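Let us begin with a simple case.
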Amino acid sequence: MKDLQTLYRVRFSEAARVRKDLVWQALCEGFFQQYVASTDTVLEIASGYGEFIRHIVASRKIAVDLNPEAGDSLPAEVEFHLTSASRLTMIADGSVDACFSSNFFEHLPSKEVMDEVLEEVLRVLRPGGVYVVMQPNIRYEPGRYWDYYDHVLPLSHLSCREAFAKAGYEVVEVIDRFVPFSTDSRLPQHPLLVRLYLKCRPLWKWMGGQFVLVGRKPRGART
């Protein structure tokens, strides 16, 4: 946990965090809100500094992270748990409508651990609930993927799709190119420009370095 605190302090300056938060506000309002109803219970895995969970509209918000400082960045209405994503014991079976994680799987030490995370998220999702992920795509960013010290697990949209299907999810959407590789990439930083980018899908094929995948818990699944 101390290593996470140190690494994030090195990687994210205060100015970078403010800029990233504005980008995520536009991403939530302009794209990710479509997967979350205002009456939903939403869970964010590896919430970081809370850019997603802060701006998504939901009835109940839960965030988990291994960095103790992550909870300090969240608004009071967010329930924060300092825990591993593969050990969500504080969350009841079938109690979550939508789960989200961004730039998370690449930090996991093995595919076996990723399998454990997918299994645990599937447990807490209600039948019909979705797990929405955004990930750097090694298929399109094979070099820069390894520019981060804590990147371990290589994934493309295709290998991630297989992992979700293997875990028992119905993969209902895959966008192989979405936003650029990072908030330091060519994605326009002003919220208005981000919103315009989201509305212009041809740009995604040119600039996108991350993928989006949506897996759904089968409606007939037992909670």
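The second case is a distinct protein. As before, the sequence precedes its structure tokens.
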Amino acid sequence: MATAKIAIVFYSRNGNTEKLAEAIAEGAREEGAEVALRRVKEIVSEEVIAHVPGWKESAERMAAKYEAPTTDDLVSADAVIFGTPTRFGNVSSELKAFIDSLGGLWAKGALNGKAGGVFVSTSTPHGGNESTILSAYNFLAHLGFIIVPTGYTDPALFAGGTPYGASSVSGGGSDQAPTEIDLAVARVQGRRTAQVAKALKQAN
């Protein structure tokens, strides 16, 4: 049986989106998938980072733990799941900068037919979790991904998350989020994406 390869490409500043990424990876591995976790780097100056308490330390920790994504990571994957904190109801500039670098893959159609999805973290309730995922669907479509939403495919989705992708609300802090329900939905997303990616791989 073919083993699906999944790349989880995310940006996280305080660790909330990171925790969702790890849970998605757990769910994908439960389906036998091979998972690569990749975190995009900061694009702002060190001076800007220094003005936000904890940002420098968090960035250094995650930079040491996760490799930065490359185009090869995406080409070799059967599915790519993108994660981002929301920025005014849209994806973060860090993730968007990486997406904007994929013009060469788009021109070659290198990502056509791969499974794709999105997950997010917001700092406030109704802070743009669904609009951020839906806006990210735009670049998934342009890049040729087959979009895989979570849907209401598991009881966990009736308690948290969205039918579009996993999400969490931090409430301005990183120690209360994501909740256990948020993580359960993230694992559902990982399993579901792995199942679809495996089926697509076998069909080809």
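The helical segments are 16-30, 46-50, 55-65, 71-76, 93-100, 103-108, 129-142, 180-203. The chain has one domain: 5-203.
Keep these points in mind for the review questions at the end of the chapter.
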